[in-house]
Every structure is written in C-alpha cells, then in structure tokens.
Amino acid sequence: MAGLSHGSDRSPLRVLHILRHPMGGLFRHVCDLIEGQQDAGVMTGVVCAEPPPGNAVSRAMLQKLECHCGLGLHIVPMGRLPGIGDFRALERIGEIARRLRPDFLHGHGAKGGAYARLLSRSHGALRLYTPHGGALHYSGLSPTGALFLAMERFLMSRTDGFLFESGFSQRAYEEKIGRPAAASVVIPNGVRPDEFAPVETDKGAADFVFIGELRQLKGVSVLIDALSGMKERATLAIVGGGPDEAAFRAQAERLSLMDRVSFLGPMAARDAFRRGRIVVMPSLAESLPYVALEAIAAGRPFIATHVGAMAEVFGPDAAALLPPGDVAALARALDEAQGDARPLNEQASRLQARVRSDFSTERMVGDVLGFYERLIASHAQSCVRAAGRRAAPEASLRN
Hints:
The protein is an alpha/beta fold. It has 14 helices and 14 strands.
C-alpha cells in the first residue's frame, strides 16, 4: 500500500494516534503500526504522556518512535483516572489537532480513545477507537466500572470506526457496552519476522520467568503463591515494574521465597526471555497480550491462563490454558514442566507456526490501512448523498 493517499490532490493520509501510557503491549502496538504506516507513505503523529520515571525501555522506544512521526511526537500530561486535568489535556490535544489537521484521530486504550472522540467534529477528522482491553476489563457492578462503561456508551455515538485486536475484545464490547454504532473490524496484533529468531537461555537462568507490568491484574501474586506450593524447589525471575511491586516483594518475603524470586526491573522482552527457561503468563484478565505473541514467536515454552484472546492464539492447543486465579492448577503445571519439559517444547513448536501464519505486523498494518481506506470512501459517499439531499429542495424551489 505504498503511497496511501486521498482526495484529488493525492495528498498523503494524516493520522494522529492518541494514547496515555507509552509502555506495555498497547504502546508496542502503536509503535509497530506507526512504523508500518510511515513505510506506506502515511504521515503520522503521536500524543501521549511521559513514560514512568526510571523506565529506560519505554523512553528508548519513545525516542525511536519520534523518528517515524512526520506529524511529530507531542507529550501531554494525562492521569490514569478521570479528573480535572482531563479538561486541560483535551484542550491541548485539540490545539494539536487544529494545527496538524489529521484525517484520522486514532485513540488507543480507554483514555486515548476518550480524548480522540471527545474532540469536536469541527476538526474534520474521522475518530477511531481501539480499546486494547481498557474499560472492557471492568465490571458494571463496581462504581468505577459502571462509570467507565457508561462513558463508553456515551462515546459510541462519537466514533466513526472501531478496531478490535481480537474477537474476544469485540464480544466483550458488545456484551458490556452494546453493538458498535459505526463500522468495526477485528485486526489481531502482530509480531515482526525478526522476532522468530531463537533466544538462547542464559547460564544460571531461573526455571520460570514472568514478564509484564507489576499489578494485581497480571496474576503475579497467584504465581508467587503457586511457586510456594510446588512440590519441587524452583526459581522465578520477575521482569517489569509497576504499582504493586512492593506488595509482590512483601509477599515473596512473607513466604520465605526471596532466595528463589528475583525482581529484575523492566527490560526488552527478548532480553527477558533469556532470564528463564519457561515463560509464565498467569494473568487474571487480558485482551491480546503482546508478551504471549513475542514468547511464542521466539519459540519459548509457555504456560498461560485462559484469559482474553489466548484461546484465539492457542487454537487447537487451547485446552492447555489454565483457569485464571487457580493457584493449585498453576502449581501443578509448574511441577509438570519441571519434571518433563518435552510436552511444552512440542506445544511451543506448534504455537510458533500458528503465530507466524496468523499474527504478523505486515498483516496487521495492511488491514488497518485497508480499514482507513474503506472509511474514507464511505465518508466521501455520505458527503455526496448529504449534498444531494440539500440540493433537492433548492432545485424544487427554483422549479
């Protein structure tokens, strides 16, 4: 799709991506999407908050991303929860949109999606939303969840297109919020060809490695409890940072596991894979996690819970997924992997072939650009029809 453009002057398409947190799978998705869009001749820009202090990985990714942003990288303070600061952030994003005049405002995650769709239609841009889980992880039974889901229902009418990264996300949106009122499409996340290169395990690596943000939703406390409940003695490397790190350290210390659990801080996924023989993803909730695709592409033995779109990734091997939050089931799986890793290695080979076939960045970028083109064509047709309806009464008055 080189040279993607629109209009009679064939000017390049302009897309402004909006997200809050430049870290994790959502940020990885945006980085891959922007790099591919630039290669296709699209002018892209990014609006996001500062990376967390001390997260060198995110800062390096953000610095690299800026080189691909023809419309610039724009840092705007954004809070995680709704607050008075959102009014100022929305005002600043509106100023950026007026200056850059994008064809699309593409919001990612709950906060980025809200900002993209709260902006006035007077900016002239079509407004897109990719949830990436976000508000879809919440239940309407909690006050916070009820607020977030009500906001999503309000914003639905201000959305010109929905992009879901999995069938799971699309179903969750329809169940919790309603059937999308605009065009929608499922486009899975993807990994790059170079990520299928094997990763050698370090000498002295831990038996198991967890990679991700350190918060309760990721199931780290379940993993620590499972390690404590194993029949065999095993070691665990925890890679990442986050708001619940202190709680997880206290848990490991309380269970007398600090000699077997190491907290290594954030690092690139492929560096993290070297730190443990088997990758474990014990999440309590997910959408389509990049760490799963990255681990599988690298051919790593992989233990995961049955959350989000993991069944879509595992396909015929979905029966191997574990129930989320089940400490005993996870402990049994860890023990089995310690005793005989051959079944996991055979599964890893099957999963790698599946990801290579169905979850590529090339396919992801191409499908997103195809969706953009369909929306532009549909919008142009709507404008022609609207102009015709306005012209009809005028013609009848002249006659």
